Amino acid sequence: MGDACGIGPEIIAKLFRADADSSDQVAAGCFVLGDVAVMRRAAKSTGGMLAVARIECAADTFDVPPNCIPVLQADGIPADLGDALLGQIDARAGTAAAACITQAVRLATAGEITAIVTAPIHKEALHAAGVPYPGHTEMLQALAAEPGAEPPPVRMMLANDELRTVLVTIHLSLRNAIDAVTFDAVLQTLRIAHRSAARWGQPAPRIAVAGLNPHAGEGGLFGDEETTIIGPAIAAARAEGIDAQGPFAPDTVFMRARNTADHPGEFDIVVAMTHDHGLIPVKYLGVENGVNVTLGLPFVRTSPDHGTAFDIAGTGQADESSLAAALRMARRLISG
Q1: pTM
Q2: Among 103, 186, 204, 282, which is least packed, fewest CB within 10 Å?
Q3: Domains annotated on the chain, with CATH
């Protein structure tokens, strides 16, 4: 359910409410892992008259009557979570969000669920709760590892109908992110992107690689990472049969890759070196259609392309479109 003080519970309630009035049953077969009281508050704030039923296990989802939100009460939810104020950072909400993520991974690993769709969490709330991860991606990566084993290498992809971007580095300061752009990191990203694309029906994706520096370094005038790190990693990937091209100037490659009715994209995926290089173009096209996908996990995980929106939490104004897109993407990845 995400952060209880943000819009996560509301967009979930709106999604189930929309299902009740539509033949497009986006949430069919889905349940909420979270807190029953929080979900009842969200149902009330989004129009009322939407039942919330507590279930005891994932399989009970299919026994819940129509027009009802099935909720599995997560282990480790603080008893006083309901006292946390909407629109504010609260350690109790961070604790609850982490508890939901942890249990979701347990269920996925046990084969009780086929995908995880995460509502937005707040990184400061996680930090206030003492959770040692900066976000969903890093936490899911750690939880997915077998006890004592190295976590699986994962990458963040942000996607919509027009553009897919995979990141080499994620939640790091820009100064540290530049240091994290290594030959191994770029090559691993290309391998993960190539392998993952088969899940959505592209076994041989065309991958464009964005440079790190302005104009992709302009032949070394503005930095040499393109010639010493990124270019060699592309060459190594191509030697493995991966259709990777570049490095291209980061300020134009996304326009070339954008796929529309009037402009068929030249590439299926763009690999970007840093968080903002890759995410700004996708988010500019509209957060309501964007989906965050964690590539490399042993289970499917998607999420909406927006945050907790504390400024409108509890008002019922939040748009559930990106959550619906995340659910549709999860189903596509499962079936692929």
Answers
A1: 0.89
A2: 204
A3: 1-152+297-336 (3.40.718.10), 161-285 (3.40.718.10)
